[in-house]
Amino acid sequence: MKFEWIKILYAIWSLSIILNVGLVTQGVVRKIGARLGRRHGIRWYQPYIDLIKNYSIRSSVSHGIMFYLGPVFRLSGGIGMYLFMPVIFGSIYFQNFSFSGDLVLILYFMFFGTLGMALGAGESGHPYSAIGVSRGLAQMTAAEVPLVLSIIAIAAQYQSLSITEIIAAQQGGIMNWTLMTNPIATAAGLLAILGSMMRSPFDVVIAPQEIPIGPPTEYHSTFLALLQTNRSIFPMAKTVLFVNLFFGGATNWPLMILKVFLLYMWPVFIGVAFPRFRVDQSIRWFLGIPTAIGIIAILIV
Amino acid sequence: MSNDDLKKRTVTGPDGVQFEVDPMKDYFCTETPHPENPSNKVVEKFLNWARSESIWILGYGTGCGAIEMRPLMTPRFDAYRFGIQWRPTPRQSNLLMVSGYLSVKTLKRVIRSYEQMQNPKYILALGSCTINGGMYWDSYNTINRLDQYLPVDAYIAGCMPRPESLIAGFNELKKLIKDGKGEGANKYAENFDWYKQNQKKIIKDWDMPDYNW
Description:
Chain A is mainly alpha-helical and about 300 residues long. Chain A has 12 helices and no strands. In chain A, helix 3 packs antiparallel against helix 4 and helix 9 (about 220-245) packs across helix 10 (about 255-275). Chain A starts with 5 loop residues before the first helix and ends with a helix. The mean pLDDT of chain A is about 85. Chain B is an alpha/beta fold and about 210 residues long. Chain B has a single domain (about 50-200), classed as Rossmann fold, CATH 3.40.50.12280. The longest helix of chain B has 16 residues, at about 165-180. The two termini of chain B are about 15 Å apart. The interface of A and B includes residues 43 and 218 of A.
């Protein structure tokens, strides 16, 4: 296969779109939350201002090399995951760098950022960081089990590890979506995604009232800004992946943004309805029902 | 932490290896702060706008005034409308609210928190206690004028000021930042020796490095 340089431009284009979608979604979701609490809440463009503000802080303190690399790894995890995934089905511009085995690579990228962040936050030396990191890795590992089970089930169902082929097989109406053809794998996947969206009941990592913000406690100015950038790209990339795998992908941006927004509201709804788990509860929960559903999904396929 | 913890000593590690620990060198940076001046005026104007519209407060209540900050998060006053949010760590905050009287003991913690914040950083002082001591003006263990010890950007008078006046104070601070006058961090760095001298005069048991990064 010949490498086309123009693809880099397309990738930057699609990355900037997803960054903006991520920032606006963040603001809008917080705004909705505030309106439900009868407040006006932040302005919908507040995440943009926060981002600019953090990039513009003049001084910064480093705790070592890994401390520098932590946010960089985290951001490259988010961007990497997004860049190896086809976004708009059938469009030559938004295929990014997808190839025939991209599903496996994306699973790797999902974990990559967390590991980098663990090393970086560990070096900052703050006890809350260490607690947050150990919780994060434990929960991530537990949540990965049902996720991988459901993805293996899909890969076996469609006989392919290429996301493009999986989307192609789902075209032609809602009855062809994985949601309809393989509801059990979809259920396992949807339960697993709750674990990595940093929302209650699974926000044991940042645990706002317990170990205030956890791993990034010592991160400030530009470091924090990198993490914030990732915070808007990474959940979007995950949601795009789920739309691609379970909800038939999308053939244009408005449809994709609509689907991504609706799917993003799933962890949000769960989050406002349930209080936080303790870390041992959340890990046991992931290894319980979601894993059982995942195993059933594989057995059925 | 006491003074003994800061002395140089030999420690035996869990694996039996002996090594020397010099806390002042190993745990802290001895470098003093230096003023960081903006480079480009036009860019700085835009950045100042961003800074003023996104003020992150260090959630740290020093005196009774802290109770007046809580209503700001509720539907009635809702400071989030103005881009004001609360952060749990000094590293990520821009604004330190000194809410009311400061005992000598608390002053030490306030100084440590302030020095851990990143340039540019601002201080809002609440209540008459921070201006002239207020009702504690003759107390044996509270300070009277805060700006002798830390650079204050704006005062909010009252005993205690109500949440409305806090919001007015935020708006005043925003104007200052937009005008490029919110340079408390640089002021602190330029007059570092004077501030340290005043701080050490009042804090008798100085058991920390001169500058807490």
